[in-house]
Amino acid sequence: MSQASVRQAEIAIEQKHVDVVYARLADMRVEAEQMRDRGDQLAHGARTEAVFEQASMLYERDVMVRYANRILQTLDSEHEGLVFGRLDDTTGEVLYVGRLGIRDADFENLVTDWRAPAAAAFYQATAEQPMDVVRRRVIRSSGQQVIEIDDDLLMPGSQPASMPVVGEGALMATLNRARGDAMRDIVSTIQKEQDEAIRAPWRGVTEITGGPGTGKTAVALHRVAYLLYRDRKRLGSAGVLVLGPSTAFTSYISRVLPSMGEDSVELRSLGGLLDGIEAARIDPAPIAAVKGSLRMRRVLKKALRDSPPGAPTEMRIMYRGEVLKLDAQDLAKVRRQVHGLGRLPNRSRVDAAEALLEALWRKAESYEGFHVKRQDLLVDLGERIDFHRFVVVWWPVLTATDVLRWLGERSRLAHAAGQTLSAREIDQLSASWRADGWSVADVALLDELRTLIGPPPKRRHRRAVEDSYEPGRRRPENYEDYSHIVVDESQDLSPMQWRMVARRGQYASWTLVGDPVQSTWPDPAEAAQARDSALGKRTTRRRFALRTNYRNSAEIFELAARVVRDVASDSELPRAVRETGIKPQISVVADASMPGAIRDAARELLGQVDGTVGVIGSMTSIAKITEWVTDVDPERLRVVDAIEAKGLEYDAVVLVEPGEIVAESLTGPRALYVALTRATQRLTVLTTDPAWPEG
Ligand SMILES: Nc1ncnc2c1ncn2[C@@H]1O[C@H](COP(=O)(O)OP(=O)(O)OP(=O)(O)O)[C@@H](O)[C@H]1O
């Protein structure tokens, strides 16, 4: 038989099994729907049964409905192939691996869930340690149709004559495919070193490091699916949070977990972590660096103690024929006293009222010939409506956004900053808070303020809503009790951002994903310290280093590696496994011809690849660049600045003016390294510097 017909025959064998699986699934679907109906009946019945029976009935119903929903969800979710793997072992046993564990009506195993221990060999077996696996097969399908198979022969000595081996390697086939706007899951081709990180226990802190394209993000997401599968009770109800750098990133990864049947995980960007605020604006690097540093805590604390804008600077109140007056100095003293009690400002209005009454009493006492009893004055004035009206405006309920906005006034910020910020920093920060909207770095400051201020006094009905929270429902505002938190691109979190994230995971276990070489944070020591205090005393720490770059062609990565050689050691750089024979194109362009050159390069690349093409430029020129390419294929062309490009990938990239990207970043070549490692197949660099990349 020819190779082609052997392949066809093997595909037909797999198709037969896949057909059996889908037929069984159709039956299960009917059963699941019946189960759901039966669940409803049970719930209905429970209302009329004795109380002790209700609990077990409801529990049974919940289990049924959850199981039924899970099957339906997996069947309905967009994914490639329910059955994607097969292992043949030395005893002739066959094990199929898929997205869901499925048994036939006689309870015989048709497919094993990829997360089950029995499926681990699918990812962990190698030629050196075959774990009794003779042949590993990846089955690629389109819908219910098997379209391709790819085999690895792990134990050639044990291969029976009747066992053919076909295909050229599933991994390479997958890596060569065009990229779209959404990341795909990698369940069928997870590599051994990745699998170890995915299956690590949930406790403590799991750190996954590796260069660009080593699959850190993919691994972190599969780890979440794995942990929820293994420990849903413990992790599922308190919730899992996945945090990424930008909304472009969270949208890029948003389909991976649902494609594995997980839709309960919260994906948030750093700008969207605080409920009610969606910040996308990125500050210029020097401003972001100040906003992210721990110095800001001092400034914010001080700002809260200052008198709010619009607060009266004088109090006059008539009492028994005398006008009692507190001037600005008196009032400032009272304010200091109240803050000195150390309670949250939004919880201190009663303290403020009491301190004002005391001050009024001292004033009254100082008036000659004015005889009143202290207790009388405190009670009489304390009941007066005009006194309360004053307290409300003098000690208003604060919101974090109000307080940060106030610091847009330069003199106010200067007062709060004292010696903590330089005059230039005060100029820059106050100007930034006068601008419209919030920046991503502001969100951590708002969250810090939220905690320093305390929640606004609760109204009764509001408390009722928060207390009635049950797992599965929408979580309460600014929920802080996640059971597991994944932080992607963790090398870039500022100390203030670490504090914000830590608040949400006081009892959580963590998966941290990052690459120090791609760091755009200028003070790694300060950030590392903030990170360590965020993680607290968690003693279990495990580290996984991924070393193979699956994204970039070797030719593209070679150029990227050149720009960071001075700041990174070889051991920190991954190895790109895929060669395309196509070198990146570097074109030196005159300034005036840049718009046309970008358009031409974009069009050329769009003609050469099937998927998306990214145009990446500096933050300062990205608005201009966006205008220049508006008429070029909006379907497949994406324009992002070097910061936003973090974590994303395209089939081809036009990188505009690398020198500008280096110049505007506080970590120079590292930011450029990030931008240069976004393309899977082709890269064109346009520069006005004839000496680049050497210059
Ligand atoms: N085992 C694998 N099988 C198939 N594709 C893979 C595998 N591992 C990684 N990839 C692909 O490689 C690309 C890079 O993966 P990912 O974005 O997770 O890398 P990363 O380490 O997070 O990169 P960066 O640090 O640049 O953000 C993705 O397209 C991913 O699907």
TrEMBL record:
Keywords: ATP-binding, Helicase, Hydrolase, Nucleotide-binding
The keyword ATP-binding belongs to this UniProt entry's keyword annotation: yes
Keyword ATP-binding: yes
Record Pfam families: Viral_helicase1
Name this protein carries in UniProt: DNA helicase IV
CC terms in the record's Gene Ontology section: cytosol
GO MF assignments: 3'-5' DNA helicase activity; ATP binding; DNA binding; hydrolase activity
Species: Actinocrispum wychmicini
Binding positions (ATP): 210-217
GO biological process: recombinational repair
InterPro entries hit by this protein: (+)RNA_virus_helicase_core_dom, DNA_helicase_UvrD/REP, P-loop_NTPase, UvrD-like_ATP-bd
Domain UvrD-like helicase ATP-binding: 189-553
